[in-house]
């Protein structure tokens, strides 16, 4: 059997699954992609408002996103990315600060002058200071406390990391932060595709289908059985698809829920928890501060960050309105996550108005509010995860894994998912060549 005659089923229609299916179908492999929801795009998915589609969760492209940019190139979309220089703010104890330059730092009152200087010097050197160190086995808290001191850790980093990773924030490997700094490279330039993220998803779907692949939405996989050379995939409704290979892009706890007992036994045992997220999205009639991103610390809000998307994407794409996201990363079992969207929308609207009262924002400026949640967003990596991270192959089966847990130590992003997709698709194709030779 060759790649042309083999059938590969890809589970999950987020960017990773789409990129795998794109690469395989374009290489002549017969592919079926199955997505549970009625939309493709996963965490990068969108909703209609007016005559536009808008991302449920804020997304941007970084200039260092090489894997994603080369995929966009292939799809003819690279030149559609609009790059802009963006700025950052910081809200501490209800006061708004700019946080971009050495001068901003010198004016940053929440820290004493000597801590401001220390913050600036260490931040400039941080990437270099991490080189050659075993950061995968070093707790973020231990590393940052040592370099920045207790005050900066307690007043700045602990609330910022705590908001992203929950109670285990200090334990996350310092390597995560080091990689993140590398991705962002202290650059303020960010990109946004002119047609929104939907244009990328549509182009991938078009590419897969154009090469003869099948893309099915509203097709949740409810059962998966797998031997060394064959797998069978059961869909809700009872339909069964036979496959020579399966690539699963869904978070491991979800995969475990649909795997039969034999496959479940073979899946990697991970003590990996995931943070979910709650975001509220505000269409406003006026801008806030014009900063793309502002962490919000100790300011009486439940959300802990504000993203002013129109500072990057402009207002034309939102029908002349300004788009602002606020977010809180949280466990999917938390009280907040379980709350009704309308209740969160109303409470967070009040908090946002209070936060920006000083710049004259009022209820009359709020045109529309939407709340979205996602249960599996950020894997909370344990120490030493580079070594203990599961491989993409599941021994004794024809299943390959391509999940957000596998992108570590890269930051979870469209770029890292595309990079992973390329490498897993490469393994599928190489296996096909092997099968073809021995058949
Ligand atoms: C608030 C927020 C902000 C972000 N900001 C950025 C950013 O600025 N830039 C950036 O690059 N990235 C950003 N990301 C991260 C990025 O969205 C993710 O890393 C990426 O989308 C992960 O893609 P994926 O395909 O691996 O997983 P997912 O997008 O989670 O896709 C998995 C898919 O599997 C489907 N599925 C689940 N179970 C089944 C089943 N049983 N059967 C069939 N299908 C199933 C799901 O419905 C989903 O569509 C952000 C994420 C969030 C939440």
UniProtKB/TrEMBL annotation:
Record Gene3D superfamilies: FAD/NAD(P)-binding domain (3.50.50.60)
Pfam families according to UniProt: Amino_oxidase
Matching PANTHER family: AMINE OXIDASE, PROTOPORPHYRINOGEN OXIDASE
Organism classification: Bacteria, Bacillati, Actinomycetota, Actinomycetes, Pseudonocardiales
InterPro entries: Amino_oxidase (IPR002937), FAD/NAD-bd_sf (IPR036188), Zeta_carotene_desat/Oxidored (IPR050464)
Species in which this protein is naturally found: Umezawaea tangerina
Name of the protein described by the UniProt record: Protoporphyrinogen oxidase
Domain Amine oxidase, first and last residues per copy: 15-357
Molecular function as annotated in GO: oxidoreductase activity
């Amino acid at each position: 059997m060759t790649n042309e005659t083999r059938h590969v089923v890809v589970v999950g229609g987020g960017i990773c699954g789409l990129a795998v299916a794109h690469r395989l179908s374009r290489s002549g492999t017969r592919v079926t992609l199955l997505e549970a929801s009625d939309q493709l795009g996963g965490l990068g998915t969108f909703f209609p408002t007016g005559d536009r589609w808008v991302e449920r969760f804020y997304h941007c492209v970084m200039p260092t996103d090489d894997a994603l940019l080369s995929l966009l190139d292939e799809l003819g979309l690279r030149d559609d990315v609009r790059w802009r220089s963006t700025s950052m703010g910081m809200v501490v104890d209800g006061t708004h600060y700019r946080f971009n330059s050495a001068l901003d730092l010198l004016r940053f009152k929440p820290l004493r002058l000597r801590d401001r200087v220390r913050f600036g010097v260490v931040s400039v050197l941080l990437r270099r200071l991490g080189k050659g160190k075993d950061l995968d086995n070093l707790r973020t808290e231990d590393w940052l406390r040592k370099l920045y001191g207790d005050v900066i850790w307690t007043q700045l980093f602990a609330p910022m990391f705590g908001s992203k990773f929950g109670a285990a924030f200090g334990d996350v490997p310092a390597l995560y932060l080091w990689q993140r700094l590398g991705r962002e490279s202290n650059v303020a330039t960010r990109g946004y595709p002119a047609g929104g993220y939907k244009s990328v998803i549509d182009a991938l779907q078009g590419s897969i289908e154009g090469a003869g692949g099948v893309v099915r939405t509203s097709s949740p996989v409810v059962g998966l059985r797998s031997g060394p050379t064959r797998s069978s995939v059961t869909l809700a409704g009872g339909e069964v698809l036979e496959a020579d290979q399966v690539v699963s892009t869904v978070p491991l706890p979800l995969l475990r829920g649909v795997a039969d007992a034999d496959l479940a036994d073979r899946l990697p045992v991970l003590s990996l928890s995931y943070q979910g997220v709650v975001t509220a999205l505000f269409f406003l009639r006026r801008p806030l501060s014009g900063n793309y991103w502002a962490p919000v610390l100790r300011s009486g809000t439940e959300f802990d960050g504000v993203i002013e998307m129109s500072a990057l994407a402009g207002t034309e794409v939102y029908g002349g309105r300004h788009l602002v996201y606020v977010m809180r990363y949280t466990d999917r079992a938390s009280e907040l996550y379980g709350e009704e969207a309308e209740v969160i929308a109303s409470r967070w609207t009040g908090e946002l108005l209070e936060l920006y009262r000083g710049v004259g924002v009022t209820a009359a400026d709020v045109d529309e509010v939407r709340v979205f949640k996602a249960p599996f967003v950020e894997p909370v990596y344990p120490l030493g995860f580079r070594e203990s991270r599961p491989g993409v192959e599941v021994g004794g089966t024809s299943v390959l894994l391509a999940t957000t847990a596998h992108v570590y130590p890269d930051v979870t992003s469209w770029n890292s998912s595309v990079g992973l997709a390329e490498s897993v698709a490469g393994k599928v194709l190489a296996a096909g060549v092997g099968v073809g030779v021995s058949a």
